[in-house]
Amino acid sequence: MLTQEDMESRESELARLMEMMRDAIQQDGGDLELVSADVESGVVEVRLTGACSSCAISSVTLQGGVERILRERLDWVTAVHSGVDEDMDPFESAFLGRGNYVPQYIQH
Fold first, then answer.
1. What is the CATH T-level fold of the domain 7-96, as seen in this structure?
2. Rounded to two decimals, what is the model's pTM?
Protein backbone atom coordinates (compact mmCIF):
# COMPACT_ATOMS: atom_id res chain seq x y z
CA MET A 1 0.00 0.00 0.00
CA LEU A 2 1.29 3.44 -0.93
CA THR A 3 1.72 6.26 1.51
CA GLN A 4 -0.16 9.50 0.95
CA GLU A 5 3.14 11.12 -0.02
CA ASP A 6 3.83 8.42 -2.64
CA MET A 7 0.34 8.79 -4.11
CA GLU A 8 0.70 12.57 -4.32
CA SER A 9 4.11 12.18 -5.95
CA ARG A 10 2.68 9.84 -8.61
CA GLU A 11 -0.26 12.16 -9.25
CA SER A 12 2.13 15.08 -9.66
CA GLU A 13 4.38 13.15 -12.06
CA LEU A 14 1.37 12.13 -14.12
CA ALA A 15 -0.03 15.67 -14.25
CA ARG A 16 3.34 17.07 -15.35
CA LEU A 17 3.69 14.48 -18.12
CA MET A 18 0.09 14.97 -19.28
CA GLU A 19 0.66 18.73 -19.61
CA MET A 20 3.77 18.11 -21.68
CA MET A 21 1.87 15.85 -24.08
CA ARG A 22 -1.16 18.17 -24.19
CA ASP A 23 0.98 21.02 -25.51
CA ALA A 24 1.96 18.98 -28.57
CA ILE A 25 -1.58 17.70 -29.21
CA GLN A 26 -3.12 21.15 -28.80
CA GLN A 27 -0.93 22.45 -31.63
CA ASP A 28 -3.04 20.35 -34.01
CA GLY A 29 -6.37 21.55 -32.62
CA GLY A 30 -6.93 18.59 -30.32
CA ASP A 31 -6.52 17.96 -26.65
CA LEU A 32 -5.71 15.17 -24.25
CA GLU A 33 -7.67 14.70 -21.07
CA LEU A 34 -7.06 12.49 -18.10
CA VAL A 35 -10.26 10.55 -17.47
CA SER A 36 -9.04 8.64 -14.43
CA ALA A 37 -5.90 7.39 -12.74
CA ASP A 38 -5.51 4.74 -10.07
CA VAL A 39 -1.99 5.45 -8.87
CA GLU A 40 -1.95 2.34 -6.68
CA SER A 41 -2.81 -0.18 -9.41
CA GLY A 42 -1.12 1.87 -12.15
CA VAL A 43 -4.16 2.02 -14.43
CA VAL A 44 -4.57 5.30 -16.33
CA GLU A 45 -7.40 6.27 -18.67
CA VAL A 46 -7.04 9.10 -21.19
CA ARG A 47 -9.12 10.50 -24.06
CA LEU A 48 -8.33 12.55 -27.16
CA THR A 49 -10.76 15.38 -27.92
CA GLY A 50 -11.18 18.20 -30.42
CA ALA A 51 -9.62 17.67 -33.84
CA CYS A 52 -8.07 14.44 -32.60
CA SER A 53 -11.48 12.78 -32.31
CA SER A 54 -11.80 12.61 -36.13
CA CYS A 55 -8.14 12.05 -36.91
CA ALA A 56 -7.32 8.90 -38.84
CA ILE A 57 -4.11 8.45 -36.87
CA SER A 58 -5.61 8.98 -33.42
CA SER A 59 -4.92 5.34 -32.51
CA VAL A 60 -1.25 5.86 -33.41
CA THR A 61 -1.16 8.98 -31.24
CA LEU A 62 -2.73 7.09 -28.35
CA GLN A 63 -0.73 3.88 -28.56
CA GLY A 64 2.55 4.98 -30.11
CA GLY A 65 2.68 8.30 -28.31
CA VAL A 66 0.61 8.72 -25.17
CA GLU A 67 0.66 5.13 -23.91
CA ARG A 68 4.32 4.60 -24.78
CA ILE A 69 5.41 7.81 -23.05
CA LEU A 70 3.37 7.12 -19.91
CA ARG A 71 4.67 3.56 -19.57
CA GLU A 72 8.28 4.48 -20.33
CA ARG A 73 8.52 7.49 -18.04
CA LEU A 74 6.31 6.36 -15.16
CA ASP A 75 7.47 2.93 -14.06
CA TRP A 76 4.38 2.50 -11.89
CA VAL A 77 1.97 2.67 -14.87
CA THR A 78 0.76 -0.87 -15.61
CA ALA A 79 -2.00 -0.17 -18.15
CA VAL A 80 -3.25 2.73 -20.25
CA HIS A 81 -6.85 2.71 -21.46
CA SER A 82 -7.57 5.24 -24.13
CA GLY A 83 -10.11 6.44 -26.62
CA VAL A 84 -11.43 9.42 -28.50
CA ASP A 85 -14.35 11.72 -27.81
CA GLU A 86 -16.98 10.14 -30.07
CA ASP A 87 -19.67 12.66 -29.12
CA MET A 88 -18.17 15.41 -31.26
CA ASP A 89 -19.43 15.92 -34.80
CA PRO A 90 -16.70 14.54 -37.13
CA PHE A 91 -16.87 17.53 -39.50
CA GLU A 92 -16.65 20.04 -36.66
CA SER A 93 -13.76 18.05 -35.24
CA ALA A 94 -11.91 18.04 -38.57
CA PHE A 95 -12.46 21.80 -38.90
CA LEU A 96 -10.58 22.37 -35.63
CA GLY A 97 -7.35 20.84 -36.93
CA ARG A 98 -4.55 22.45 -38.88
CA GLY A 99 -4.55 19.94 -41.70
CA ASN A 100 -1.61 17.93 -40.40
CA TYR A 101 -3.64 14.76 -40.43
CA VAL A 102 -5.96 12.80 -42.69
CA PRO A 103 -9.61 13.10 -41.60
CA GLN A 104 -11.29 9.83 -40.72
CA TYR A 105 -14.55 10.93 -42.35
CA ILE A 106 -14.30 12.20 -45.90
CA GLN A 107 -17.36 13.68 -47.57
CA HIS A 108 -17.83 12.47 -51.15
1. GMP Synthetase; Chain A, domain 3 (3.30.300)
2. 0.76
